[in-house]
Please model this.
Amino acid sequence: MPMTDVIHLLPDSVANQIAAGEVIQRPASVVKELVENSIDAGATAVQIIVKDAGRTLIQVIDNGCGMSVTDARMAFERHATSKIQDASDLFALHTMGFRGEALPSIAAVSEIELRSMRAGDVAGTRLIISASKVESQTPDVCQEGTNIMVKRLFFNLPARRKFLKKDAVELGHITREFERLALVNTGVEFTLTSNDAVVRKLLPASFKQRICDLFSPKLDHQIIPVSTETSLVRIDGYVSLPQFAKRRGQLQYFFVNGRNMRHPYFHKAVLGCYESLIPADTQPSYFINLTVDPETIDVNIHPQKYEVKFENEQPIWQILSACVKEALGRYNASAAIDFDTVDAPDIPAYTPGDKPAGLPDFDVDLHYNPFKEDREPRPRFSPSPSPKASVPTDWEKLYAGFAERLGQDDAVPDAAPAELPVADEPEQQQLFVAEAEKPAMLQIKGRYIAMPSKNGLMLIDQHRAHTRVLFEKYSAQAQQGMPVSQRLIFPDSVQLDPSQDIICASICDMLCSMGFDISNLGGNDWSINAVPAIIGQTSPAEALLRIINAMADEEADVEQSQWQRIAAAMAKSGAIKYGESLTAEEMDAIVTALFRLSSPDYTPDGKPVIRVIDIEDIHKMF
Model:
């Protein structure tokens, strides 16, 4: 029986769902695509409304140009766009969108209600779509611009909806996307509302003012301008002063032609300018705009258009590096050194008639020969010559009668060979044997501990090993009952970015029940007044940031295994860092504590701690 044809075209609804998997990853992706469409439509005011972190509703209202009845329907067809006409337009883009994939992808995984009207039209249009199926389109009286509501996101993809994170985490992602869009469109008024509460409201402002409005007014005195213009690129923006570099929570943004982007190569160029100015474990903040000829870049290499390929990447790297270095040199806040006065001797003023100060009297032996062995040793210069004192050679006479003068009880006993203690108990005898047989350990590059093992050579990651040890310690103490809170003599303060602030506010009660005492000082500033006693010497601010980031990265709900997450965050912040030198005793303590655990092979997040190079593999090397 002949085989029938098996290749066929996918229905549009299925193709749109596949495309949505790349373009629409979470509610923040919907916000990004809809707001970019509003910007492309010439809007000067954009309002974003979300409910339940975008699960229930994402609504974007703008005062842009609006759409006609036909355009409103065509906008949800695949590869339908008003941004480009042919392939050559891809190399002269001046808009955010151009593929015609965002709206059909959103419509494939949600329910959409659209209202739009152009300026001068008598009436607008109202369009309702569910899972790519147009249910109705009717005339409607509405305001000029576009009002689009995305409801029940991923309602027809239960597995995708299930893997959305907690509301605080998803709202944090929406806030970060809102920040990127607001930074690059400083002339647009933005409003972000969550569950009927206004989270952000930004008026049109300068670039620097928009940075301060978004993050903190303190940045006004912490950032300095960078600016240059060449035939290849125009660079303008702001970088932070070296003294304000941060270990965590850096604000690092690149923009090209009004588009947000990620560029690791240019990121290294900026970090290289701070190499000798800041500690190795900190990084600066920066907000840098690049303006280049659209024909020299390619933005069509990433589904979400975050990556951009530059034709003149190497020259721009050099220009960027020189621009940042020049700004840091021009605004260097450190005091200049006056080489004419530093460590200068105090020279008294000359007064006529004063007699010059007399020189000190020295006895100089003009016949002194340091290489003549039979001459009595004598310093070349001595203020007052004295007869040579005889040096005793019989040292034992100096201590004659010492013990008798101190008394019999204070006499120094004769030294005797030290003897190892002899243990009576078998366990103690075994302990001494094990102590004597401990293998030698070697630290490699401040990162690994190497030691012989039964099967070859064992390598232990020192940071991960200590993390595992501390995790077990914190977990054990937490399971014994409510943790003891340790009050801080001087409260520690920490400044969070808006997305972190949302997460911190949502878990504040839970943190307080676990031993923290934190309070909001206004804006994104928080005060840490007390911490759980189990965190030891860990920085309170670092511990809090670790916990917030752990809550943001975890896919499970916050209430599940909450102590394990907090213990893992504290262990990571309190463990020894890479590059830290360890003594033999410290290495022994870590290894001993590690092998006392029931599962020492992996960290709490599943990363390997121990690796063994088999002796057979070592033989093969030679």
Notes: The radius of gyration is 36 Å.
